[in-house]
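Suppose you are handed a protein chain with no further information: no name, no annotation, nothing but its sequence. What can you learn? This example shows the usual starting point.
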Amino acid sequence: MPPLRPESEIRPESASQGLPLRRWHAEDEQATEWEVSQLIGYLIVGLQPDVCIELGCYHGQTTEQIGRAIHENRHGHLHAIDSDAAALAVARDRCAGLAVSLQLADADTWLLPQCVDFAFVDHGEPADRIGVLPRLLEVMSSRGVIVWHDTGDQFPLRRQLETFLPGTGWNIVYLPTSRGLGIMSSWPFTARPLIV
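A reasonable first move is to predict its three-dimensional structure. Written in structure tokens, the prediction is:
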């Protein structure tokens, strides 16, 4: 694994969020924070998806975490893409032997699998990611979850998602990580009174 640096050195402009950025680590500004990659792996263990996709796998750090979680689950498969051939080669080495298919492709034109249970979206620039959302909604399973990286206040993606989502039946929760993580689901939620 390449050496990790604190987010406070990688993205000091994010300090305006008031988060202690030294607690998150990444290989560079393109890589997902290591701690966030681990969290996504735990989501795979908890959600038990069959069909997973990753749009923008870069060097495969999160790809590997998803692949290891799928191995632990003893079922499922990850289809991951990236548009950078050199980055994809690193990801291939990292994910050898895991239930992961890696492909050189562009997220905006890639033929998405059907009945996707879990999608991690981290391709290209955050402002350009929203364009894939209508296509994702068409292929997500009824229990599907879409996780968006870079949804912190410092990125336009969060505002784009909030503009797009009303009326779709999908909800989103934002987690306060150094770059922000948004978790979308259409799973029915019924508020129930707390019995004390």
